[in-house]
Amino acid sequence: MSKIAIIIGAGPAGLTAAYELLDKTEIKPIIFEMSDAIGGLSRTVRFKGNRMDIGGHRFFTKSDRVINFWTNILPIQGAAAKDDLITKRKVKFPQESFQRKLGERHSEIIKSPDPENVDQVLLIRRRTSRVLFGRKFYDYPVKLSFRTLRNLGLLRSIRIFISYIKILVTPFKTENNLEEFFINRFGRELYITFFKDYTQKVWGVPCNCINAEWGIQRIKGLSILKAFTHALRSMYKKITIRSKKIETSLVEEFYYPKLGPGQMWEELARTIISNGGEIHKNSKLIGINIEGYSVKSLEIEDTKSGEKKVIHDFDFLFSSMPVKDLIFAIDKMTPTNVREVAESLVYRDFITVGLLLTDFKIKNRSKTKSMNDIIPDNWIYIQDKDVKLGRIQIFNNWSPYMVEDINTVFIGLEYFCNEGDELWSKADQEFIDFAIDELIRINMIDKDSIVDSIIIRVPKAYPAYFGSYSRFDEIREYIDKVKNLFLIGRNGMHRYNNSDHSILTAMRAVDNIISGLETKQNIWEVNTEEEYHESKNI
């Protein structure tokens, strides 16, 4: 390998870039990861035989290239999983899978694995999620069902209908912020009911302070009309993983690694190392030297020992680290305006509390069968304003193999905060007690059902679309001129992308190196192309 690529971050984007380089080029990838874990926010945390998904990661995409990438690492299940067997869930499993060895062109046909006997497998999962509002459950995405109308009440339902008709007649011609984006698609009344307070809980600022681009990237074309059309279509046609013309928020199935999302990235890391790549953990990028629009050297610090080293011998730099930190790692030759924009970029931080329970208080009253009669939800959005809790994950329902004892329930309580604020500043046990009290207040658990707990804090989890975000193009214009530097991934590009989009940014960066394409426009176009949102196969 005559050339070397340095990759900052061992999350989905960084690992994908390393794999693609090994698979398609003679360039050796060397990854530096600041933490001691693989997978970034998509990692799996192990806790006394149980596993936590940090943030909830559905493996769904409209890109065939990404699906093939995932299934080449972990093939799709060919037989029933533990909960499929217990609940007698009827699923059509593929009997054959295709796997291609790194560097080879052609795939081999293999027998699809049985998750009861093999760990390296992707499960086919049914998506169930709801909103808790006013201590009542609503389907998410919101369905115009009898139960929804009954929960809302006649007067509110009429107001929602009238406000939606009104916005259809007189919409905002220009969506200047996220509030106007929501109102244009759902009407003011439904926006106030289901979006306004929850979004402020997530981001810490009102919707009218957030750039509408967040909605364009995350919610895309979802609206009342599309939700209604989807409900009618799903009555006679199953909406599956391969349904490319369906909005992502409406897809009813997804893939999921048997042992949590981190399993995908741990498997990928093993493949990278066994094929000549390197991964160095606890290694933080603290200095970048740029000369003549080219990165010439890097300074790396060992976060445990404090030892520093300078690296000169490399040809390319891929960065998935927070772009704010990247700019301040560059020497002082960075333009003043670029540093000003970077300094005011905002991130939302994240805390999750894992609770191991003997029982979940709310039982399953839906038609969807579940293990141990617990509610079948993957996650529940907590809309009520009297608690800070944002979302509840039920790990049993993501994969039954995430829980050591299937007679217990393992859940995650998700909070959104800013580093240094009141929530973040609470001591670990104080925060756990606070979270437990909130869960009891909304009548989800009894205190005597708690077996154990764990807390995880994630700084800079979500790049925000306010602060100096409106000037982000000034950073992009400067960085894009640096020929051997590629920004990839969610934090690397300061875009709230899903993991499939992060993967695609890495793939395109490697494609550009192979083809000699100097412009980086196609990398920035990931998750902004309207064709991709609707039906395009990439």
CATH fold-level topology of the largest domain = FAD/NAD(P)-binding domain
The main β sheet shows up as: 7 strands, mixed
Our count of domains comes out at 4
Question: Mean pLDDT across all residues, rounded?
Answer: 90
Uncertain regions spanning at least 5 consecutive residues: 530-538
How many β strands by DSSP? Answer: 21
Strand order of the largest sheet: 9-8-17-18-19-16-20
Proportion of helical residues: 25-40%
Distance between the termini: 29 Å
Instruction: Supply the CATH architecture of the largest domain.
Output: 3-Layer(bba) Sandwich
Strand content: 15-25%
Looking at the chains present, what oligomeric state does this protein adopt?
Answer: single chain
- Rg on CA atoms, Å: 23 Å
Question: Which class of the largest domain in CATH terms?
Answer: Alpha Beta
SSE-based structural type: alpha/beta
Number of helices: 19
The shape, in one word, is globular
Give the full name of the CATH homologous superfamily of the largest domain: FAD/NAD(P)-binding domain
